[in-house]
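Narrative of activities, Objective 1.

The group set out to show that a structural description can be obtained from nothing but a protein's sequence at a throughput compatible with the screening campaign. Below is one input-output pair from the validation batch, recorded exactly as produced.
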Amino acid sequence: MEIIIVFFVAIVVTQFIKVIWFYLSKDERKPRSFLWPSFWIGGFPSSHTAALTSALYVIWKYDGMNLLFGFGVIVSLLLIYGLLEDKKRQVLFEEYFMQSNDSSLQKIVVEERLLSFSGHSLFEIISGGFVGIAVGFVMTTFFL
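Output recorded for this entry:
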């Protein structure tokens, strides 16, 4: 049960950080521009990575480096690689669409429609990993 609690706490903490970060770094305060990107697209820090690393921390703390931990690391690396690939694909499409003479393709980029497909940059993934480990440590040391 601890792993589930820590998993969801890591998501809540990273989403809270993401909302604060988005609010402080953007000029626009419209509801869509605040809620949609801060919750539904990739950004700093990666809640996916935080959730995975916090769960891995709990497995490591209670069971050590066993078969389950190793399997968790492999699955986590595959998922994180997918996040990096998604970000790379999004940036590639944005560059291609902006160079196009087709105004409808450029409009997709300007309206930030491709952000629905965005993954995470390496910095966002690493920061999410640190948040996940910190949440796992704090939760298992002081609360569970």
